[in-house]
Write a structure and sequence with these properties.
This protein is of the alpha+beta class and about 260 residues long. It contains seven helices and eleven strands. Strand 10 and strand 11 form a beta hairpin. Helix 1 crosses helix 3. It binds hexanedioic acid and magnesium ion (MG). Magnesium ion (MG) binds next to strand 1 and strand 3. It comes from Pseudonocardia yunnanensis.
Length: about 260
């Protein structure tokens, strides 16, 4: 970055975030150095990270629930990408030693059964294009000190994405995703609860928001993509030895052991 307040260099910022991940060392907010750092530039940084991130397996929404927005002090939804390197298999432990400050949150995960794109997509369209919905646990790991960031900071940091695990998908027909109960447990204790409506009123509405946002870049969802539709509760910090369990009524249960 050149002088204070000037538009940051996209390549330099992508390098800085990549290094923070590799070094397992958090960094200061970009927005503190460059008040002119805006959302368009931050999504450009994220696109640069995506170019070198390996095969993409899907997308994620962030900050779609009030609980999440309050936790990090950012009050608008954002989106990021997921690659195979982010994925943990069922039963695979989370290696916390390669992360900076991991947190876990429960997600409803959409598995797309057909391509969907466009700037007028609704929740009903999303449900029609969905082959199944699963319970997921997302592991976040902000590359910024203490999860302190503005919207452009966290967008550039690919919405704090680090790892995720997804359970077996079930067909959505007949299940009102607004009403499903969500329980997040850590080491046998309930740490947070929610219902599906926590994510923008309906998790499919959150995915529709994503599709409309992607349309601005002439992108969309493809058959087989998975979409993390947004953390339904505040995220809980985890360390080696912890076991996190996410349960969603009528959808299933997923657990994640941390070592
Ligand atoms: O997936 C999310 O909701 C996280 C978005 C980024 C905010 C955070 O790190 O909690
Ligand atoms: Mg999330």
């Amino acid at each position: 970055m050149s002088a204070e307040g000037t538009v940051p260099d996209v390549d330099e910022l992508a390098r800085r975030l990549t290094k923070a991940t590799a070094d397992r060392t958090s960094i200061g907010r970009i927005s503190d150095e460059a008040p002119g750092f805006d959302l368009a530039t931050s999504y450009a940084v994220q696109r640069r990270l995506r170019q070198s991130a390996g095969p993409q397996v899907g997308w994620k929404l962030g900050l779609t629930s009030r609980a999440k927005q309050v936790q990090v002090g950012v009050d608008e939804p954002i989106h990021g990408f997921l690659t195979g390197a982010h994925a943990l298999d069922l039963g695979q432990p989370l290696d916390t030693s390669v992360l900076i400050q991991p947190r876990c949150e429960p997600e409803l995960v959409f598995v797309m059964g057909s391509d969907i794109s466009g700037s007028h997509i609704t929740a009903a369209d999303v449900l029609g294009a969905t082959s199944g919905v699963a319970v997921g646990i997302e592991v976040l790991d902000s590359r910024f000190h203490d999860y302190r960031f503005t919207t452009p900071d966290v967008v550039a940091d690919n919405t704090s994405a680090a790892r995720f695990v997804v359970g077996a998908p079930v067909a959505v027909g007949g299940i009102d995703l607004r009403l499903v109960g969500v329980v997040l447990e850590k080491n046998g204790e309930v740490v947070a609860t929610a219902s599906g409506a926590a994510s923008m009123g309906h998790p499919a509405a959150a995915v529709a928001w994503l599709v409309r946002a992607l349309a601005e870049d002439d992108e969309g969802l493809r058959r087989g993509d998975i979409v993390l539709s947004g953390g339904l509760t505040a995220a809980t910090p985890v360390a080696a030895g912890d076991v996190v369990v996410a349960t969603v009524d009528r959808i299933g249960t997923v657990s994640l052991a941390c070592r």
